Amino acid sequence: MESKHSILEKYFGYTSFLPHQEEIIDAVLAQRDVLAVMATGGGKSLCYQLPALVFGGLTVVVSPLIALMKDQVDGLRANGIPAATINSSLGYGERRIIERVILEGRIRVLYVSPERAVQPFFLSLLKKADVRLIAIDEAHCISMWGHNFRPEYRRLRVLKERFPAVPVIALTATAIPAVQDDIAKQLALKNPARFVGSFNRTNLTYRVVPKTRYFPRLVRYLNEHRDDAGIIYCFSQKATEDLAEKLRGKGFSALPYHAGLPDAVRDEHQEAFSHGDVGIICATVAFGMGIDKPDVRFVIHTDLPKDLESYYQETGRAGRDGEPADCILFYSRGDYNTIRYLIEKECADATRKDAAYRKAGAMLDYCETTGCRRKFLLTYFGEAYPEERCGGCDRCETPVKVFDGTRAASMIIACISEVGERFGASYVADVLVGSKSARVRENGHDALPAYNSGEGYTRDQWLRFVQEMVRKGFITSTGGRYPVLVLNDRSREVVGGSLPVPLTEPEPAGVVAAETA
Ligand code: ADP
Ligand code: ZN
Questions:
Q1: How close is the Cα of 202 to the center of ligand 2, in Å?
Q2: Residue 478 C-alpha to ligand 2 middle, in angstroms?
Q3: What sequence ranges are listed for the domain Helicase ATP-binding (predicted)?
Q4: Angle 229-16-139 from CA coordinates, rounded to 5°
Q5: Within 10 Å of residue 429's Cβ, how many Cβ atoms?
Q6: Farthest-apart Cα atoms in the chain, separation
């Protein structure tokens, strides 16, 4: 048997492993089930491709995207590794030929879609083949708690049932700890070796910028980065086209990219961007799956992403070459309505809706946090980040001013208590500023001591205080679809006068926060 190092050089042309690759490969070679979480670009493919060569026989790879499978197969073949894919784009004749060479043991790595992988006919074909390893790519799709649930992934457990002796490696770029557990459970992995790489992309700088007057700000940024290539993500297909056109009007080379364009046009635009013929691609999230342009210098979001997993993945396309790159998010709280609309439309059942709302809530918290953005992101993904400040985000570049907000905090706590811990943040802010809203009056809350007690701050400022208190744990939000504010032990300490509450100094009315872009 050839050693893994000689295979690494001979077939893949690398002289050393990337972080975690070797440990993961060793676990696979020891025939263990493995769960590997590594950032995009971390080199996940090698973790099953190299063992495939050591094991001989057949390695089956389940992957959700036909386009990606094709790239992988082409890449393997170019390295002299016999690989194939069986997918819906094949005709009957072609499929029969591939099936025959599989049974003859002449294919080392076989890519299939999750739908195909569980078909009885396909499973009986595999039974006759010499399967030595099963790899499940994009494994987070199996979990309802993940950000891209695909029901067909759920059935993949059948692979472990039919091939109990074959090791399974599950791979994903994003999985919070709960999703990791779910992946292991759903796939019926046996005592899996777990590897979680760092999510810290040290060369990326994170900024959140208010969305007011966003176009001039965007143009100003782009003007300062004339020679750089970047991706601007927009929510809608139409917005990508409008923005590309407006930018061309300002003398930039920009093209749109979205799923509604004819295939030929889309490919052309992607090629133009990859080859550097066009500097800016205005895209929906359809763009980026499988693009491998190393020198993307900025990723800008003009609209709020639906969750941090998406945001992390999309910004992860910046700076793959390791050089500095910017991730800028134009943020307006109003964008949350669009996300709410999406969630209501796309999530069929209550469990998924609730999960989606929690994720959207974390996305908002990221935008509104007064602390380090990187720490926030890493903490979200379950990674410890020992520093308080990273130096590579807007919050670390210009820290917010903090004042002793104990008095304001006590008023908020009193208000939450008076409305019976049954309402959310906007309602509490309404009561504090003495809103004339019908809901407040119908509930009789205009008679409470807290009603109109919040003089000195605007409704928006109260709202921010409330959110900050939730983030800092002085009060608790139940989260989910209709989050309700409740008091906790720390709230009671505040009331008792034993716990001061530092809050972010509000911006003077009318002035827009931190013009960093
Ligand atoms: P992922 O699937 O985790 O996003 P890939 O498997 O596509 O990552 O690998 C990302 C990039 O890293 C690819 O360009 C690949 O060729 C390269 N790569 C993988 N392993 C190594 C290695 N050991 N040394 C150098 N480059 C590597
Ligand atoms: Zn920071």
A1: 10
A2: 27
A3: 25-193
A4: 65
A5: 24
A6: 82
Q: Which atom of ligand 1 is nearest to the CA of 42?
A: 3
Ligand 1 centre to CA of 279 (Å) is: 25
Torsion of CA 37, 38, 43, 46, to 10 degrees: -10
For the Cβ of 428 lying below 6 angstroms from any atom of ligand 1, the answer is no
Cβ-based neighbours of 196, under 8 Å, separated by 6 or more: 37, 180, 382, 383
CB atoms within 10 A of CB 437: 14
Cα(418)–Cα(408) distance, integer angstroms: 15
Tell me: the pLDDT tens digits for 323-349? 999 999 999 988 988 999 989 988 888
Q: Looking at ligand 1, which atom is closest to the CA of residue 16?
A: 23
The span from the CA of 72 to the CA of 111, in Å, is: 9
Any ligand 1 atom below 6 A from CB of 44 = yes
Ligand 1 atom showing the smallest separation from residue 292 Cα: 14
Render pLDDT for 223-250 as a digit per residue (tens, 0 to 9). Answer: 999 999 999 999 999 999 999 999 999 9
- Closest ligand to C-alpha of residue 40 is 1
Counting from 1 in the atom list of ligand 1, the atom nearest the Cα of 47 is 6
Amino acid (1-letter code) at residue 255: L
328: phi then psi, degrees, rounded to nearest 5: -120, 130
